[in-house]
Amino acid sequence: MRTVNGWAAKAPGAALEPWRFERRDLRPTDVALRVTHAGVCFTDLDHVRPEPGQEQPDIFPLVPGHEMVGEVVAVGSEVTRFRVGDPVCVGNIVDSCGVCEACRGGDQQFCAEFPTLTYGGRDRHDGSLTQGGFADEYVADQAFVYRRPEGLDPAGTAPLMCAGITTWVPLRRWEVGPGRTVGVVGLGGLGHIAVKLAKALGAEVVGFTTSPGKAEGMRELGADDVVVSTDADAMDKQRGRFDFILDTVPRTHDLSPYLTALRFDRTLCTLGMVSGMPFDPMSLMYGRKRLAAAGSGGIADTQDMIDFCGTHGVTATVEVLPVAEVNTALDRLVAGDVTYRFVLDLGGSAGTAERRAASAT
């Protein structure tokens, strides 16, 4: 076993603290990476600070983190894709059954047996609990480890492994590119990356926001136009304008104005679908519109996204904090005190974590 230093919540709702734990020895096709940066996602927050009634005490102690960037430090005997020293990244799933329809089609994120999550999941071989990337090392099968272009900023790359791939898949699926007008609803962790990706793909990009103060930020990210969605007159002028709209807002809101804004026979894809999301059925039926959803991506799509970002210099806009301030990051995430995404710097913190963990045991 490999002894690792990480940051774990010992129980639901508990603050993260240094924790020494064991990673598995490398299997023949495994890769071990030294984690230098890890993104902080709302999913991390949901797992370690769950809502009442949503607790999963059987997965604690829990090391969160599923947006990892680092470099290879060891490889299994049958690894062919990586060598020690290679820059790599790991996302939110690290295994799947490999034989169901979704897996065979390259959509491992929709594995019929449910994919193995990067943390809080069960290893398909030995049944152990997976622990995440808020740690100095991670081990995964080479199939779920991705080559990282060396020119990409490592901190800005980390959120691509969740927020980036989640927006990339629908942009690709609905053929966003030159000659297309694309709307992006929301300017958070997902939305700001979606604006950058859609622009890099060559589309005309229009941002929708409820906050007039965010208009300039959207333009700085690459949006050609910004619409304040609380302005009824401005929204009415969008009727029939868009070839595709990507809605990244993770809370209940009326989808009807966005369906109305689509051109004939076009698609609105929502990434933040919640129960009871309202819309006028006529806004969907008239014009043969489509309401779709998406979530994360498989192996091929993820590498395609990373390679595209490397070619076009696309990364997330991030605020970097040392891993010792992980609880500050979570507190600020709860308060909405983050412009786009937090990323933890683990590069110089392993020794500190190790000393604190040692003194606590």
Short description:
The protein has twelve helices and 17 strands. It is an alpha/beta fold and 361 residues long.
What would you note in describing this structure?
This protein is of the alpha/beta class and 361 residues long. The protein has two domains: 2-162 and 316-360, Medium-chain alcohol dehydrogenases, catalytic domain (Quinone Oxidoreductase, Chain A, domain 1, Alpha-Beta Complex); 165-293, Rossmann fold (3-Layer(aba) Sandwich). The protein contains twelve helices and 17 strands. The protein has helices spanning 42-48, 101-104, 154-157, 163-173, 189-200, 215-221, 232-236, 256-261, 281-285, 299-312, 326-335, 350-360; strands at residues 2-9, 16-23, 30-40, 68-75, 87-90, 93-95, 116-117, 137-141, 145-147, 181-185, 204-209, 225-228, 242-247, 262-270, 290-293, 318-322, 341-345. Strands 3, 4, 5, 8, 9, 16 and 17 form a seven-stranded mixed sheet that branches. Strands 12-11-10-13-14-15 form a six-stranded parallel sheet. Strand 14 (262-270), helix 9 (281-285) and strand 15 form a beta-alpha-beta unit. Helix 4 packs across helix 5 (189-200). The longest helix has 14 residues, at 299-312. The model is unreliable at 349-361 (pLDDT under 50).
Task: List the SSEs and their pairings.
Blueprint: E1 2-9, E2 16-23, E3 30-40, H1 42-48, E4 68-75, E5 87-90, E6 93-95, H2 101-104, E7 116-117, E8 137-141, E9 145-147, H3 154-157, H4 163-173, E10 181-185, H5 189-200, E11 204-209, H6 215-221, E12 225-228, H7 232-236, E13 242-247, H8 256-261, E14 262-270, H9 281-285, E15 290-293, H10 299-312, E16 318-322, H11 326-335, E17 341-345, H12 350-360
Parallel strand pairs: 10-11, 10-13, 11-12, 13-14, 14-15, 16-17
Antiparallel strand pairs: 1-2, 3-4, 3-8, 3-17, 4-5, 5-9, 6-7
Helix pairs in contact: 4-5
